[in-house]
Specification:
The protein is of the alpha/beta class.
Amino acid sequence: MKLKTDHVGDIAIVRVGEGRLMYPLLSEFAGAVTSLITAGEKKVIIDLSGVGYVDSATIGCFMDLYRQVSAAGGALKLAGVQKRVETMLTMTGAQNFIEVHPDERSAVSSFGG
């Protein structure tokens, strides 16, 4: 899976380089983000600007990662969400929990940094 993690200050940015984020890629994706949280990252942005499709399992995965970060006292935000992905987030109600930002810059500044 194409996944790259960068840092802007104390914010971890996970860039997903796949057009479709769904099974069987979810396990590797979730493992990568979980290891960041376990390592103490409290501010996590998932950059989905290249992702045009997610399924309900992906939304469930986002919610699980959101719960993990929240339990650790941090925050998880999504950036660069395309319309089709945004529709899935809205249909499932996930956007009521996970902040969605139009681009990475606005997600980074939402942390106050």
